[in-house]
Design brief:
The structure is a single chain. By secondary structure, the protein is of the alpha/beta class. Helix content is 30%, strand content 20%. It has eleven helices and 14 strands. The strands form four sheets. Strands 3-2-1-4-7 form a five-stranded mixed beta sheet, with helices on both faces. A four-stranded parallel beta sheet has the order 9-8-10-14, covered by helices on one side. It has a three-stranded antiparallel beta sheet with strand order 11-12-13. A hairpin with a 7-residue loop joins strand 11 and strand 12. Helix 1 packs antiparallel against helix 2.
């Protein structure tokens, strides 16, 4: 339904309706999960936001909202500026190509032999230019002075595009992050909920430091916790560090993670046709990235579904993530 609506609204240049259809589609998964958990029907409208409701929030923040939607053969993008102006784009690229880009989003892989055919193919030398079409609407808005350098852009990706940092996308020979301050967010509904709450300054922290089996067996051996963990230990008196095998979901749930700085120093994973998530320990074992990349060891993945469960309370928390 929603892909058809997006196609129709884009052709008719009904960009407000286009953005609302995109946001409703992103909210459908959340609505289904809440329905399962509470046994009470919830619709995507409960978790989406009308453009007319979002515009005043952006005006107050002096920021802009950029939403993307991945269809089978293209990507739709809609920019809503702080002044309530709408611009839209359609990039012709299929879903499979975006999933491939997501699998090679780490710059350390660029120029290396392609695992699909290492003898005859190599991974592109630079992914940033291939992402340029996705941010063309921002470039146009900047040139027309509808947005300005240094502005904050909250963006919501979709599908595999969520796993590609648009920050390094090429825009006129520079990277997108050279022009704007960027913040990725699940959708307009999340932005509305966050800005509707009173500011909260956490007084404690919980840090999870989870190396993989491969990290422990590497040439350099196990390493000290990341810089963010060390900063928390130096600057906050009340805190807890869960490290290695003890940093599992059960320990996290029992750690009273509400209203704190919750920091993950671990790996992320996006298994094919499954929800992406952060990697935790499980069963007193460290995660094995080789198993995870083959679709196994699901008990090590903290998915959005787990986060939504009532026993996992992170209300009022500030969540940060640093990749191993």
């Amino acid at each position: 339904l929603y892909p058809c609506l997006c196609t129709l609204y884009y052709k008719l240049e009904r960009y407000e309706d286009l953005m609302e259809a995109m946001e409703a589609s992103k909210s459908r998964v959340l609505a289904d999960q809440v329905t399962r958990e509470k046994g009470k029907a919830a619709t995507e409208r409960n978790f989406s936001l009308l453009v007319k409701e979002l515009a005043p929030i952006l005006g107050r923040l002096k920021s802009h909202y950029y939403s993307c939607f991945v269809d089978d053969d293209c990507v739709y993008g809609v920019l809503l500026t702080s002044r309530g102006m709408l611009k839209a784009s359609r990039t012709t690229i299929n879903r499979e190509r975006i999933e491939y880009y997501a699998s090679i989003s780490n710059p350390e892989l660029w120029g290396q032999p392609d695992p699909i055919d290492p003898v005859r193919r190599r991974i592109p030398e630079d992914l940033t230019q291939k992402l340029s079409p996705f941010v063309e609407v921002l470039k146009t808005a900047l040139e027309s002075r509808e947005i300005s350098e240094g502005d904050l852009i909250c963006y919501s990706a979709h599908g595999a595009l969520r796993h590609i940092p648009l920050h390094y996308a090429d825009m006129g020979g520079n990277q997108l992050v050279d022009y704007f301050s960027l913040s990725q967010i699940p959708g307009a509904y999340a932005l509305h909920r966050i800005m509707g709450q009173k500011p909260n300054i956490p007084k404690k922290y919980i840090a999870l430091d989870i190396p993989s089996v491969q990290d422990m067996n590497g040439k350099e051996g196990p390493r000290a916790p990341g810089e963010m963990v060390r900063w928390l230990e130096r600057n906050m008196k009340d805190g807890q560090l869960l490290r290695g095998e003890e940093a599992d979901l059960e320990s996290l749930v029992q750690s009273d993670s509400g209203a704190c700085i919750l920091h993950f120093n671990t790996h992320s994973i996006a298994q094919k046709d499954k929800d992406p998530g952060l990697v935790l320990a499980a069963g007193q074992k460290l995660p094995d990235l080789a198993l995870l990349n083959r679709g196994g060891a699901e008990e090590h993945i903290l998915t959005p579904e787990e986060v939504l469960k009532p026993e996992f309370d992170i209300s009022g928390s500030h969540i940060t993530y640093q990749s191993y």
